[in-house]
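Supplementary Methods, section 5.1.

A reviewer requested that the exact input to the structure prediction be made available. We therefore reproduce it here, unchanged from the version used in the analyses.
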Amino acid sequence: MNQPELNVDEGKLNEFMGKALADMGAAINTSLVLIGDRLGLYKAMAGAGPMTSQELAAKTGTFERYVREWLSAQAAGGYLSFDAATGKFTLPDEQAMALAVDNSPAFIPGIYQIIASTVLDEPKLRAAFKTGDGVGWHEHNCNLFEGTERFFRPGYSAHLINEWIPALDGVEVKLKTGGTVADVGCGYGVSTILMAQAYPKSKFFGFDYHAPSIEWASASATKAGVSDRVTFEVSSSKAFPGKDYDMVAFFDCLHDMGDPVGASKHVRKSLKPDGTWMIVEPFANDKLEDNLNPVGRIFYSLSTVICTPASLSQEVGLGLGAQAGEARLRDVVSQGGFTRFRRATETPFNLILEARP
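The structure derived from this sequence is encoded token-by-token as follows.
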């Protein structure tokens, strides 16, 4: 292949290389975050004050020489602070909130599991670029499934009950008095269980085509003490059973579906005449140029290696992508037979949309 002729601005090249250098450090840090998370290194440092590598190794039952290098790398990346006078490392409380507190709304280790899965799955994805075939959710490394649960749980815990459901027209009253809800594409069942805990008089049904996720969700419901009002079942978005639901919920999954219009039509048939479809989607503006920012970068990247391949692996294969935007989602919902559609609320990471017959 002939080399291209390039007219290079050295200043712009150096600027880009600086960005790439930062990305290299961030990329290799994925493995270090997973090690710190899985070995309990962050948790051992949270609230413990300055520590030496010997102290952290003793506290966690790990080998000091590895721990020393890990601490040094974390300090270089700003995840830890280092005091040269004492030779001790500290996990600041702010970083502890993000790395060591599971129920914190800022907890982030789950995304590093997702990132790890995309690297492991790269050969499959590279092949799909050539063939145009899809890569189904079930075809990914298992890090994706657990990582997704851990990544989305903090946001759902912070917003679902306190903000998102109250923003829907009349739904909260129905759930408090005893409604029926279908949670489609429920994965490990985090959203389903959160709703069941908040609204004990209602009944909840979680559906997902991925059988291992349904097994995990069922076990989680039992552990959470809500199995009397939660049922999980393997089913697709176009065939989930039941009618006369007060609410059907899709959490961060409509854009993953091969035939979202078909799913929309099925939701329409399954709802009561005054029922509500709550659609939670990654935040996106309608124009590409308005999504060229750090959040858009993450979502477009995840969409390239997870969401779009998932859609292309199914019938129709519409390939909405994780940055579909409200206008395209409105079109999908309208084609499904819904006449009312609005943005109920939003966060920096999610659009919460309400559709009604």
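The chain has a mean pLDDT of 97. These observations are discussed further in the main text.
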